[in-house]
Structures are given as C-alpha cells and as structure tokens.
Amino acid sequence: MSAAAGGERLVGIVLVSHSAEVASSVAALARGLAGGADAVPVAPAGGTEGGGLGTSSELIAAAAASVDRGAGVAVLMDLGSAVLTVKALLAEGDELPPDTRLVDAPFVEGAVAAVVTASTGADLDAVEAAAAEAYSYRKE
Q1: What is the C-alpha to C-alpha distance for residues 95 and 56, in angstroms, rounded to an integer?
Q2: What is the pLDDT of residues 43-96, one digit of tens each?
Q3: DSSP 83-114
Q4: How would you list the strands of the sheet with 73-77, edge to edge?
Q5: In contact, 43 and 15? CB cutoff 8 Å
Q6: I need a surface site. Which of 10, 14, 67, 84 has the fewest CB within 10 A?
Q7: What single-letter DSSP state applies at residue 73?
C-alpha cells in the first residue's frame, strides 16, 4: 500500500505561472506522469484574478491553503516576478501556511519530480531536493 493510500499526510504542491493555462497544464502533466497521483494535493495558481497574464498574491495564497495537509507546501514558479511575489508572501509571514517553501527548480521538470516524490509520502525536504535535482536532467 502506498503512503498516499495509507492516509499519511502529503506535501502539497503549488505551481505558480504567469498563465492560468500553463499552471493548469503543468499540474495535469505532473499528475499524469506520476501515475495519476490524485492523492497528491496539487494546485495551479496562474495568471491574475481577471484572467490575464501575471501573478496574483491572492491566487497563490488560496492555492497554498487548498493543498495544505500539514506536511508542508512546496511552491514552484515559472518566471522572475512570480518568484518575487512568492518571496513577498513568505516575508509577510501570515499569508501562506506554515512550512511553505519556495522551491528553486525548473518549472515543468521540477513539478513532475515534486509530485512523484510527494506521492511516495516523502517529507518537504525530500520533495524540494527532488525538484531541485531536475536542474541536472540532461536532454541529450
């Protein structure tokens, strides 16, 4: 029986993109490549409240709250201003769940690695390490 099936707490994953479509598609891809890891709480936080391109503190905070299961939340971002928005939320200290962590990783490959690792019941440190290791994936 997997950790997810056993009812253990899982690390939540938030995928922050400047585009709602990109965030949702990467979430679907990561779940699919993780064998349909539906038990892993993954939430896209893409675009603005009005549906435009950009990032939204409110959408990110809501996504983080929705995936928080008490084991920590890993937040992966696509581009620079998304990183700045997440850093600002972390600095405020009360907008994101406890143990929310900005994860420095490639957006697509890191998301897949994070979801696959979280699906095993791994802790936040292991999820972050797996996502960050995606920087070393060679495509040759």
Answers
A1: 12
A2: 999 999 999 999 999 999 999 999 999 999 999 999 989 999 999 999 998 999
A3: HHHHHHHHHHSSSS-TTEEE--S-HHHHHHHH
A4: 42-46, 12-17, 73-77, 100-102
A5: yes
A6: 84
A7: E
